[in-house]
Amino acid sequence: MRYRTFGRLGWSVSEIGYGMWGVGAGPGGWQGADDEESLLSLQLAVDLGCTFFDTAWIYGRGHSEELLRQLIQANPGQQLYVATKIPPKDRAWPSTRESRLADVFPHDHITEYLEKSLANLGVDKIDLLQFHVWEDAWVDDPEWLKSVEWMRSSGMVEGIGISINRWEPWNGVRAVRSGLIDSVQVIYNIFDQSPDDELLPACRDNDVAVIARVPFDEGTLTGTITRQTTWPDGDWRASYFVPENLESSVTRVEALQADLPPETDLPDLALRFILENSDIATVIPGMRRREHVHRNIASSDGQRLAPELLTTLRAHRWDREPTEWSQ
Questions:
Q1: Is residue 327 part of a domain?
Q2: What is the average per-residue pLDDT within 229-238?
Q3: Structural domain tally of the chain?
Q4: At what angle do helices 35-47 and 63-74 cross, to 10 degrees?
């Protein structure tokens, strides 16, 4: 495992982190998780050098945080960085331009869920507390400024971050430039390269750490999703991969694979593409089984992509606009 500096906070974090949405399961999440296998996978990740774990209260309504508590308790003295997220009070993902801070992140809601996450995680202080949706207009809201000031002075939070809505990397640049946040979490992968335009340069200029999420484009960049793929009842992916999205996503992956050597390991290539970007502090693939952990962490070996291959991958940029199913 290789390590990178996490922005102005100065942490040395594993460049492959652990995304914990999948292990949380619960309503509206990814179905099919098994707690025993999840805990074995989490421990394997620690044993292989992973130090950054990203969760959220909504992942299983606290269950993912509780699994992370067990991992922390099983590894006393080990520096594991814990990042979690405050859910929007209105339970709307994503927020919209019409979303009011008073309805999404009022101060009493922030304090309530901070306390819930502390209890679930079994810690006195959360390393990184993130707002799970974001609107840049909120930067100027006195209520948000009050909450940020309170969080920093409370002793219960070290770093503050935002999780940027899908396909809206521009909707976080003002927050980065405000000097009030320490990190952004944004979708960044072979298809979703638009953060390169404005967001990542702003983060570089302001020493704000970047967490790259959805490295496999919700699974399409593993090469395992086909036009016939279905998901269990209640699985979030069933609502995301509507026919329109499934067809266009599979078509895009087929075009990408046609440009690559036949035996290319697509998941490994997807991670290496992200790691080529020095603006990324850590990338957080979801890993629900030990085989996923072994495979994904193996991508952190420092080997660089050939320039011509990187040029090929950059040509597969896919700029998308949020829609009713993109969530």
A1: no
A2: 89
A3: 1
A4: 50
